Every structure is written in structure tokens, then in C-alpha cells.
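pasting input
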Amino acid sequence: MKKLFPLVTADIALFTVHEGSLRVLLGKRANAPELGKWALPGGVLDPASDSDLDDTARRVLSSKIGVDVAFLDQVATFSGAARDPRGWSLSVLYYALLPRDQVPAVAGNKTEAVEWRDAFAPGSRLAFDHAKLVEAALTTLRSKVVSAALPLHLLPERFTLTELQRTCELILGHSLDKSVFRRRLKSEPSIVQLEGEFLYGAQRPAQLYRAAADFRF
Amino acid sequence: MKKLFPLVTADIALFTVHEGSLRVLLGKRANAPELGKWALPGGVLDPASDSDLDDTARRVLSSKIGVDVAFLDQVATFSGAARDPRGWSLSVLYYALLPRDQVPAVAGNKTEAVEWRDAFAPGSRLAFDHAKLVEAALTTLRSKVVSAALPLHLLPERFTLTELQRTCELILGHSLDKSVFRRRLKSEPSIVQLEGEFLYGAQRPAQLYRAAADFRF
DNA sequence: TCAATAGTGTCTCTTAGACAATATTGA
DNA sequence: TCAATATTGTCTAAGAGACACTATTGA
């Protein structure tokens, strides 16, 4: 007998920047089906406790991964009879961004096996259709970088323009012109200069910035 | 007792151009809840016959409205416990485009009450959260017009550049410069000039064009 | 001829892109 | 001083926007 209801889940592509590359978090599946394969973190909707699917996604990240992300948004919905051996399933895919200085929090927390994989090459044999999901999340992420200040969500609270540029470059996959990049930021209200605060290194100090107070997206 | 499974539906914002404005199709609800209110066409997923949710959407359009659309794409997914009095529900919202010369086919077919409403003012008291859904579909539609040749799906097979421009203007809600518009189309491979074919009216004849054979988007 | 719309040309201004030049630190 | 990176400036070319101009039909 066929099931009358689909399995409804929220899956999350959690991105961060780690060791100089854009990463996505994968977990090793501890249950059948696809036991032992790597998959995006996700969980089944619980109508009793989730007021909507965003809730489901946040609950999964909080309980399974141990992080509460500031930024979470939908990518698309994947559905069908063929994508999960248990039968008809529907996954709403989210993408979330974790500031790179919060990466250690993830590694420490859990006994379950999780890995930060290179987002552009997350591995060849992911569970279910998750290779496709990663691809889709990456496309959405990229499309947002062009116009918006989205990558602020991947940076620490205080950052330099060079750091912001590097982050954009990592996501886009190609280098940007320093001069052009800075010129555009001049008219970007979501980026605020921290008057008199600098990052000191082995060279000329770099001006520090922060996201505007009302910065949301 | 709470339900353990959400109600999964596909809702469709079917757009067309009619009498000089952008329209969206609404149907009068014939069942409770929200009986008598106007809503986007939609239907419950049938796992037995739908291979994925796109299938559900196409089935709804075909059976309830009587059209098979060429273009159908996702907008976003709306979910939660509060949006439908029957309980936890999840709707994947699609938008579809109907060429304006196929509008009569819809009107004729059905005994159920359907109306082509102005997409920017579909009415104040739509069923459920459908006013929000229309808004979201409209935003997506607009965002696609800027860069792409999407409005081709709203035009007859053969069309003039002025017709194409008017259609873009209807969607965007503001007028476009003729010269700029045509200049951009010069480098648009999805639009093909029909050599020697013209539309004759009460003035200078207009060159006819068609969408490129491989045009999908 | 005129009205009406199709289609083209031209000017300016903004901005992207490339790249050079300058500035400021620690070593 | 030099190495390294931050920050700014300059030139050019492409494109957007505004708007004027020409073209071609039916009445």
C-alpha cells in the first residue's frame, strides 16, 4: 500500500569560510537509508512543535549542530517519489551563514560526525539528491553576493574591507578589482566605518568596519 | 488530537496580459473553509499520481483550469500552523505564464467561477494568505523581467518589439525607453526576427519576431 | 497632406574595469 | 631601508538614459 502523506523535511546548507575556502557542513548519516553516507543536516517536520518550516530548520541547526544562526533563508523545494527510498518526500532547502569565527563552536559540540567540506567539491557520493541541493544552494548564495552585502554574515563583527573582498571572491570563485570593490562600498549604507579602529598586522594597519545596526539581509 | 502530517498543496499564480493589464487568475472557493472567497488555483498533492510537486501544479492547471502551460516555475514555499484553519499546512507556490492569445480558452471551459484579476490589485479579501502569495509571485516575476526574455511566454508566437516592450512595462509597472529597450534586444539571442514578415495596422508596419527555437528559460 | 506608430541616431553622464600611484606600518 | 598590504587616483571604454530625428504606412 502506498503512503498517503509525503515525508516533509527541512534541509540546510550551512555555509562558512574556513581555512581560506567556502565550506558547507555535512553530517554522516547514522541511520538507514543511506547509512554512512554524507548528507546536509536536516530533520523531519514536527507539526506539534514547529510553527512553520523555518522553525524546523532552526530547530535542526540548534539541536543537531549546536548553532543558532542569524541568517537563514529558503532556496527551493525539492519533491518527488524517487528521491528517497522510503517513498514520496518533500524537502524545503534552506541556506544559512555562519560567521567564520564561530566555526570552532560547531566542531566541539557533538559526537556525531560532521565535516566542513569545500562547497564547490563537497564529495562525489552524497546521500539522496543532496549533491544537487548543495549545487542549488551555492547558486542562490552566489546570486545574492553580487548586489547585496550578504557576506557580512560570514564575517566576524569587526572586519576589514580586504577581508570582505576575499569573502566575496571565495563565493564568486573569481577575483575582484580592489578599486572597483571599494568604490561600490562607499555607497553601501549597511557597512559602517569604525572611526579610529584598525587591525594591526605586519604592514599598514587596516580600517575596521562593522555591519549597520539595522542590517538584516 | 493534533494531526501528524501537514496538508501539502501546490498553488499557482497564473499570469497573463488581458485588456491592457497584467492579470492573475483567481477562483471562487466552492468548499469550506473560506467558502466563497477568492483564492489562487491549487490542489492537494496526490502521491499516487504525482511524480513530484511540479506534476501536482500541472495537474491542477490542466484539470481545474483547462490549460497546459509552457512555463511553470517555483516561487517559494509557505508553511505553518496558522495559515489554514484545518491545521498545519504547506503550500509550494508556483507561477505560470499564459500567452495572452490563449486567455479565451480559460474563460470558456469551466462552470466554476474564475476571474482574471489585476495582478497589482487582486482584491482585498482573498482566502487564506493568498494575498501574500500573489505579492510574492509578482515580486519573483518582476525580478525575472529585468535580465531575461521571460515575457516571451506571455506573448503570442509572433509579436512585435513594441508588444514585447508594452508587456515588460506592464509587469514592471513603469515605462521603458524605446531606444534603450531595442538596443538591448539586439544582443538577445532568444529573440529572432521573422525576415519579411510584418504586422500591418493603421500606420507603418511593424517587424515581427518569434522566440528562438531553443528558448526555454 | 496628416496622424500614428516604427525604428534609428546622438549626446551626456554614470560606472565598470584595468592599472598606476601613494601611504603606512613592522622588521 | 624594504616588504607587504592598505588606500586612493586616473584613464578608458561600455552602457544607460533622455530625447530628437527619420521612415512608412492608411486615411
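fyi Chain B has a mean pLDDT of 93.
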